[in-house]
Design brief:
Number of helices: 5
Strand order of the largest sheet: 4-3-5
Number of strands: 5
Keywords: DNA-binding, Transcription, Transcription regulation
Number of domains: 2
Radius of gyration: 16 Å
Pfam family, one: HxlR
Shape: globular
Helix content: 40-55%
Domain HTH hxlR-type: 1-75
Protein name: Helix-turn-helix transcriptional regulator
InterPro entries: HTH_HxlR
Oligomer: single chain
Structural class: alpha+beta
Largest sheet: 3 strands, antiparallel
Length: 130
């Protein structure tokens, strides 16, 4: 969801500080993300996907599609709808655009969280600040 800073990632995942730090270190060691300093005092980093991390996007879409099909009730609806910028139509669950059939790439997607999911994200941010 385009969060790059540790506190944003922790707030959105709900993970403990130790778990988030360990996973980011593991992702960095595996070449999936890279750290970029954004502050010198105190030293602070942002985490950005590498080319290897970007290439993993179709796997993330497949996991998302599975979760939408098997882990939710029909009444819940899709948490995030994606529009494929290339064709301008809803992308569906991927990994191919349901309208034009092209492989979905993260940089070509516009995300639109449902009202319920947007409220859940806001609540997580507020709880993290408290």
């Amino acid at each position: 969801m385009r969060n790059h800073r540790y506190d944003e990632i922790q707030a959105q995942t709900g993970g403990t500080p130790q778990m988030v730090a360990a996973r980011l270190k593991s992702l960095e060691a595996d070449g999936m993300v890279e750290r970029r300093a954004y502050n010198e005092r105190p030293k602070r980093y942002e985490y950005h996907l590498t080319a290897k991390g970007e290439a993993f996007y179709s796997v993330v879409l497949a996991l998302r599609a599975w979760g939408e099909a098997w882990c939710k009730s029909a009444e819940e609806g899709v948490a995030v709808r994606f529009t494929h910028q290339t064709c301008g139509h809803p992308a569906g669950l991927g990994p191919l655009c349901e309208h034009c059939g092209e492989l979905l790439r993260r940089e070509e997607m516009i995300s639109e969280p449902s009202a319920a999911y947007a409220q859940e994200r806001l609540a997580r941010r507020e709880a993290f600040k408290a």
